[in-house]
Every structure is written in C-alpha cells, then in structure tokens.
C-alpha cells in the first residue's frame, strides 16, 4: 500500500536532525551517566501552584470535552496578556487555543498556504520548521542567516528568495541561535511582507526569556496586525512543556477558520489544563521571571567561562535557553564534534547542522541542568575544543 508523499517527505533527506540526542538517550537507557545539554526542557518542573490549580480543576469535573476554540477564560486571558504587552487591541475572537506551540505552527501554515505554495523560513531553524511547512502541503524554502551577522536575518536576502512565497516564519527570541531580532531587523521584515503581500508567522514562545535587548512582536508594527499570526505557548514561559497548551493569535477571520480546522483535527485542549494555564498567566510577571531566572543566571556564568578562553566562540546569547557555540577552530563539523564529545566525555549537545546548513561548525548547548554541572560541562567543552584545535594546527 502506498503512503502519501506529504507524510513520507516531511523530513526531506530521511533524517530529522536528532541523531545525537537519540544516541545519548540510548546510552542513558544502557546505564551510562550522560550530561544532557540537548533539548529545551526545564530542569525545574512546573510550579506546584500551577499543578494545584490543574488538580483542583480536574477534581471539580473539568475533564470532559472543552470548547474547541478554548475556554472563554483562557482566550480572554491570552488576549489581555498580548494586548498589555503590545498595545494591539486583542479579544478572544483573535485567539485559538492549541495543543502546544507546535500545533499552532502547523495550523497557522494550513491557514495561509495552499498545496504547492512556498513557505519561507530562516536557517538556522528549529528542527520541525521545514517539516511543518511540508506537512501543510507547501514547499519549504530556507533563507540563510550567518554567524557573522549574529544570525540576524537580512530583508534583502529574504526578498531575493520570495518569488512564489505566501508566508514567512520567524522566531524571536530565536531557537537555536539565541538571537533577539532588533527593531531595524523587524522593520525590514515588515516592509518586505507588506511589499510582497506575505503572511508573517511569528513564533514567540520565548518572549519571556530576553537577556539582552527587547522582545518586539512584529504584530505591533505598522500594517502588520492584519497579516501576522503569532504563535505562543505555556511551555517555555511557565515550564509547562508536557501540558501541551499554546495559542495562535491573529485576525478574527483567520481564527474563525482555524477553529473549524481544530474541530476536524485536535478537537481542543483539556479543560483542566486550560484552567491551569489561566491561573499561571494571571500569576503575573513575577512567576515568569522566576522560571526564567535560572537561564538568565547560567547565561551570565557561560559568558564568564567563554570569555576566559579563545577557542570556542559564543554567538551573542540575547534570549532563549540556549547557547550557540562556534567550534570551527577545531576543524570538525558540529555533528563530528558532538559525537566525539559524547564518546569521550559523555556530554550530549545538539550539532548546529541539526538546525540547518547555516549553523554548520556550531553546536547548540541547552542551559537546562543545575549551575554546578552546567559550568563543569561547559568548561569541559572548552578544554576539549582547545585540544582538538591544537591537533588541527599541528596537522597543518
């Protein structure tokens, strides 16, 4: 029996970029002690007060089918949050609650892309982006950014690749690079979208994790609220990764169609999870800052460690829970380096190539273990890289 090309071609080359991660997990299952610096999973789990709210809601009976668009309470809460942060008028009619940000990304592309349309995205990219676009039936087309530009996108390069495109997907603060797009960058992107009549899909799941600069939602820019779909999530801001609760915010007409899509696909998010999300969002900035604080602290520790050596380069880590490290001085690719590091020191990191060709010669380090072990692992990475670089020099 034949399977659809849409499902068999989600990952273009048959791989999904997670080989090192899977190998590290197999080693753990085999009894090896592996230091994992791979995925964006908080080492401090969901706050007990959020879990108590979730438990209370479930015990009070909110365990049946919830409203497909989301509960009025959560939609109102998300709308109020975005309006307060951006100044853009937002109501529940602009909000669809989704089973996590990933479902929101897929729904957003289904909303704006017909089969065969081109969906643009930036390289480096979160590993699911091209597959998400292909899953919506569109053609995924990457535009490279560069380490020399601190992975800030250039509007002229996007414009050069935009023929046939109907959408552009961006992510700031960015996973995997840690870049926060500045006003000049976003103004250029907004102008391009208006001139090219593109939908902008803005992945803003790391909006509470900004260490340097300011998060600007492109929905706030002139002429952009009517052509921007914002994807958000409870996963990173409130350490609720397993709860699978996110949203899409956009024009009312789009949201109305996305509600119809949800009726035929996900059929909503459990009510007790939505109640917990409402509680968490209403807890305010203090809780969000508490959850972001370990990563802010580890980023400062990392800068200190990396400034004390000259082999491993740090791409400006302005936001999110990751560091993008330049290991090109070793002469190895990111994949070769990550595999060698896992073999010799049982430290697992993500190769830059997992996130596209623009990150070749880099590794992504997740700041997701306790401070002491994180600093020890990062110091080991630097020493390991320095030894490899010396061998590289000696061989040339």
From TrEMBL:
Gene3D superfamilies (alphabetical): Aspartate Aminotransferase, domain 1 (3.90.1150.10), Type I PLP-dependent aspartate aminotransferase-like (Major domain) (3.40.640.10)
GO biological process, one term: amino acid metabolic process
Catalyses which reaction(s): L-aspartate + 2-oxoglutarate = oxaloacetate + L-glutamate
Enzymatic class: transferase
Domain Aminotransferase class I/classII large: 35-377
Superkingdom per UniProt: Bacteria
Molecular-function GO terms, alphabetical: L-aspartate:2-oxoglutarate aminotransferase activity; pyridoxal phosphate binding
Alphabetical list of InterPro entries matching this protein: Aminotransferase_I/II_large (IPR004839), AspAT/PAT-like (IPR050596), PyrdxlP-dep_Trfase (IPR015424), PyrdxlP-dep_Trfase_major (IPR015421), PyrdxlP-dep_Trfase_small (IPR015422)
Required cofactor(s): pyridoxal 5'-phosphate
Family: Belongs to the class-I pyridoxal-phosphate-dependent aminotransferase family.
PANTHER family in the cross-refs: ASPARTATE AMINOTRANSFERASE (PTHR46383:SF1)
Protein name per Swiss-Prot or TrEMBL: aspartate transaminase
Organism: Ruegeria profundi
């Amino acid at each position: 029996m034949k399977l659809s090309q849409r499902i068999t071609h989600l990952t273009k080359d048959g791989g999904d970029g997670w080989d090192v991660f899977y190998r590290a997990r197999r080693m753990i299952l085999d009894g090896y002690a592996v230091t994992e610096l791979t995925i964006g999973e908080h080492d401090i789990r969901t706050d007990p007060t959020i879990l108590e709210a979730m438990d209370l809601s479930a015990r009070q009976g909110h365990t049946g089918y919830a409203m497909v668009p989301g509960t009025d309470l959560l939609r109102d809460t998300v709308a109020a949050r975005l309006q307060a942060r951006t100044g853009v008028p937002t109501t529940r009619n602009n909000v669809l609650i989704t089973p996590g940000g990933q479902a929101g990304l897929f729904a957003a592309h289904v909303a704006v892309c017909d089969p065969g349309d081109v969906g643009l995205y930036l390289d480096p990219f979160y590993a699911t982006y091209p597959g998400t676009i292909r899953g919506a039936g569109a053609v995924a087309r990457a535009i490279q950014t560069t380490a020399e530009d601190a992975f800030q996108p250039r509007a002229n390069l996007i414009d050069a690749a935009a023929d046939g495109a109907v959408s552009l997907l961006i992510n700031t603060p960015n996973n995997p690079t840690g870049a926060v797009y500045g006003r000049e960058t976003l103004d250029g992107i907004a102008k391009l979208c208006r001139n090219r009549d593109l939908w902008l899909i803005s992945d803003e799941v790391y909006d509470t994790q900004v260490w340097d600069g300011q998060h600007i939602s492109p929905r706030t820019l002139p002429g952009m609220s009517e052509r921007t779909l914002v994807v958000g999530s409870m996963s990173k801001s409130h350490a609720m990764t397993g709860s699978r609760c996110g949203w899409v915010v956009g024009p009312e007409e789009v949201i109305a169609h996305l509600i119809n899509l949800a009726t035929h696909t996900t059929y909503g998010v459990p009510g007790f999870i939505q109640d917990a999300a409402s509680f968490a969002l209403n807890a305010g900035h203090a809780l969000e800052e508490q959850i972001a604080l370990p990563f802010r602290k580890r980023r400062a520790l990392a800068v200190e460690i990396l400034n004390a050596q000259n082999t491993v380069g740090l791409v400006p880590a302005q936001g999110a829970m990751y560091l993008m490290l330049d290991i090109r001085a070793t002469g190895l690719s990111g994949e070769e380096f990550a595999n060698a590091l896992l073999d010799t020191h049982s430290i697992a990191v993500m190769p830059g190539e997992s996130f596209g060709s623009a990150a070749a010669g880099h590794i992504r380090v997740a700041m997701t273990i306790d401070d002491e072990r994180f600093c020890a692992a990062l110091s080991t990475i630097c020493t390991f890289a320095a030894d490899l670089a010396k061998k590289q020099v000696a061989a040339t």
